[in-house]
Design goal:
Number of helices: 15
Helix content: 40-55%
CATH superfamily of the largest domain: von Willebrand factor, type A domain
CATH architecture of the largest domain: 3-Layer(aba) Sandwich
Number of strands: 8
Structural class: alpha/beta
Number of domains: 2
Strand order of the largest sheet: 4-3-1-5-6-7
Length: 401
């Protein structure tokens, strides 16, 4: 049904564009290139709107003793989001948006629940990574009901029943603390179509006794327990070095617009996340490279992507001081040709990264099987990936084999 609606919308856009041309008044000055690009740009927007959407809010306890949880989130973020790149619904890759909250930190305002919305729902995962590495822990009161309620009400959740919306809340204190009843918070979340998955950092039975399982049950979610201090064994793969090099080459295909300070900040954000991932674990850097090659990776104000998807309209809108240095002094046609060449190079690099990543994933799976490690408590990534797959399949998503 969604695919049919997308085709119908695109057809209507094309018809309206023809009417607009026919209605042009004699003597009216219209830019021919801009007019030619309008139908394509509108059709692209319609197709994007028709794509399935996955929205996930991550709620992390940043009280004392949660350093292990934060470290797992930092090192495993790119591995987790790579799962979404493997998912599709009716043949379409989803749009992915992630939000981040922290709670239970005594450095936050107690009158507001010792919680903070760190990042709104965004498709720029570099921002999520940046803030994860900036989190610090400090003793406080952990009000699960309060932070779930805030995440439900503060974020711009999709209204479509076809989209997948979920909350993952992780912590280790009783679930029922605070003035907001977590049962009511979880019920309101699922009434809005938002699944609540609970991750208790500690003993399984203790989590059940202190309300973590009940919260998930009330919101159609899954309750899991993890060892937040578990040291996940990192497997070095022969593809890691080349993946890191290709990731660096990929960065050179990004051209940012805005004033000089904005351009510098956006470029620095991307490079810094590469360094942080590499510093956290070689596997994290390789996982990040794989995600950067997927269709889900976004960098804010990337002119290459905007021109590729919408034509030269964006170039005409920019003021001279918003242009990157390499485009100044060029005509719009020359600018577009330059950006199209970068788009082509990016696509070639992404294909090489995808091929290497597939080889790396096979190598790691084989190595893990050979090691035959004894099963123990789950880590954050395995808990999230396992539950996400189960829940997305119920929403008619399928995964690459």
């Amino acid at each position: 049904m969604k695919t049919c609606m997308a085709l119908l919308t695109a057809a209507l856009v094309s018809v309206c564009s023809v009417w607009a041309v026919a209605d042009e008044r004699p003597g009216q000055k219209t830019s021919a290139p801009a007019k030619a690009e309008q139908p394509a740009k509108a059709a692209e927007a319609a197709a994007k709107q028709a794509r399935p959407r996955i929205q996930m809010a991550i709620l992390l306890d940043t009280s004392n003793s949660m350093d292990g949880l934060i470290n797992q989130a930092r090192t495993q973020l790119w591995k987790i989001v790579n799962e979404f790149a493997k998912a599709s619904q009716e043949g379409q890759q989803p749009l992915l948006e992630v939000a981040l909250f922290e709670y239970g930190n005594s450095g936050l305002d107690g009158n507001k629940g010792y919680l903070r919305k760190v990042v709104d729902l965004t498709d720029n995962l570099d921002r999520i990574s940046e803030e994860l590495f900036a989190l610090t822990t400090r003793g406080g009161a952990e009000y699960c009901g309060w932070v779930i309620s805030e995440a439900t009400s503060q974020l711009a959740w999709s209204k479509s029943d076809d989209d997948f919306k979920c909350i993952y809340i992780a912590g280790n204190e009783p679930f029922n603390q605070g003035k907001i009843n977590p049962d009511e918070a979880c019920k309101k979340a699922i009434e809005a179509g938002i699944i609540v998955n609970t991750i208790h950092c500690g003993n399984h039975d203790v989590g059940v006794q202190t309300g973590w399982k009940r919260g998930a049950d009330l919101a159609d979610g899954t309750y899991v327990c993890i060892d937040q201090d578990q040291k996940v064994a990192a497997i070095a793969a022969p593809q890691d070095k080349e993946l890191a090099e290709l990731s660096g080459e990929l960065n050179k295909t990004y051209v940012y617009f805005g004033n000089a300070e904005q351009r510098e900040k956006r470029q620095a954000l991307q490079l810094r996340q590469d360094r942080l991932a590499a510093g956290a674990a070689p596997a994290a850097a390789a996982d990040r490279a794989e995600f950067k090659a997927s269709g889900l990776y976004r960098a804010e104000n990337d002119l290459v992507e905007q021109v590729r998807d919408g034509g030269a309209d964006k170039l005409r809108e920019l003021k001279p001081d918003e242009l990157p240095e390499e485009l100044k002094g060029k005509s719009v046609e020359e600018q577009q040709a330059y950006l199209n060449e970068l788009a082509k190079k990016r696509a070639e690099l992404q294909e090489r990264i995808k091929k290497l990543s597939a080889e790396r994933n096979q190598y790691i799976a084989k190595t893990q099987a050979e090691q035959a490690q004894a099963a123990g408590a789950e880590s954050l990534d395995s808990a999230v990936i396992r539950t996400l797959r189960q829940q997305l399949e119920k929403k008619n998503f399928s995964f690459e084999k």
